[in-house]
Design a protein that fits this description.
- The chain is an alpha+beta fold.
- It has a single domain, classed as Immunoglobulin-like, CATH 2.60.40.
- Helix content is 32%, strand content 37%.
- It has a seven-stranded antiparallel β-sheet, with helices on one face.
Length: 138
């Protein structure tokens, strides 16, 4: 009886450890930014600096997503952010596109993602300011 219990416990611990080893968070490897002014592309740049990409990842984690609403915004986005993420070694690179509107109200930014799991999100003022600094390299 004790032998079976120890075997069961060993299997559970093994599965848990295997899960932890296999679980790698997606890492942003680069990001492309397109900035719009007066409805036209005013500049484009690529972000590859590791510290900046880590800051971008931290800001992304603060976005409050709502998958169940559909939003149409009358004005053109202020910026478009395209991130390239590498997950597990055998998986292909993921590309996610974000359209970003910076608001100077209590809602710091509105973000529309092409990833179905994200859809529409908002950032508070502080995180929106950080994102704005990254995008405009302030």
């Amino acid at each position: 009886m004790h032998k079976n219990m120890w075997m069961f416990l060993l299997v559970i611990v093994g599965i848990f450890l295997f899960y932890l080893i296999q679980k790698e968070d997606d890492v942003i490897t680069k990001a492309n930014v397109i900035i719009y002014t007066d409805g036209k592309t005013s500049s484009e740049k690529e972000i590859t600096d590791i510290k900046t990409l880590e800051s971008l990842q931290r800001v992304r984690e603060q976005i409050k997503w709502n998958r169940y609403i559909e939003v149409k915004i009358a004005r053109q986005e202020d910026a478009k952010l395209v991130i390239f993420k590498q997950g597990k070694q055998q998986m292909p690179e993921k590309v996610i596109q974000y359209r970003i509107w910076f608001e100077h109200t209590d809602i710091g930014a509105t973000i529309i993602s092409n990833a179905p799991a994200e859809n529409v999100g908002t950032l508070n003022k502080n995180n929106a300011k950080t994102l704005e600094d990254i995008i405009y390299q302030k």
